[in-house]
From TrEMBL:
It comes from Cryobacterium lyxosi. Gene3D superfamilies: Jelly Rolls. This is LuxR family transcriptional regulator. It comes from the Bacteria. CDD domains: cupin_HP0902-like. InterPro entries: RmlC-like_jellyroll, RmlC_Cupin_sf.
Length: 115
């Protein structure tokens, strides 16, 4: 079992994003390439974007701090602290309307085993 304080990680990464020239900071808090489930904490300074990308798996965005807007195929959803947004399949982007931290959870697709 592993335990992490999301509150401490939010504080740490938001401070780092505010100081970073990129305006962002991120850490995989669970999973990775060898796992089906991956959870990544992402901090963004206000006005920063996660550029458009294809979402081929099941994914959610949990807003831990601040406010974001998720855009997909011309539609958009606002998320505030405490909101959970299910990402639709297709091309998505995310903008921090104010300094924000999200927990991006992705369940990667697994190719069927060869017979």
């Amino acid at each position: 079992m592993q335990k992490k304080s999301l509150t401490a990680l939010v504080r740490h990464h938001l401070n780092h994003a505010r100081d970073a020239s990129s305006g962002r900071s991120a850490e995989t808090v669970y999973g990775g390439h060898a796992h089906v489930l991956r959870q990544t904490l992402i901090a963004l300074r206000a006005g920063q974007h996660l550029g458009e990308h294809d979402n081929l798996a099941e994914a959610t965005v949990q807003v831990l701090e601040g406010r974001v807007v998720l855009t997909s195929d011309g539609a958009s959803w606002s998320g505030w602290r405490g909101d959970l947004i299910t990402m639709p399949p297709g091309r998505n982007s995310l903008e921090a309307v104010e300094d924000a931290v999200i927990l991006l959870t992705v369940a990667k697709l697994i190719a069927p085993a060869a017979s």
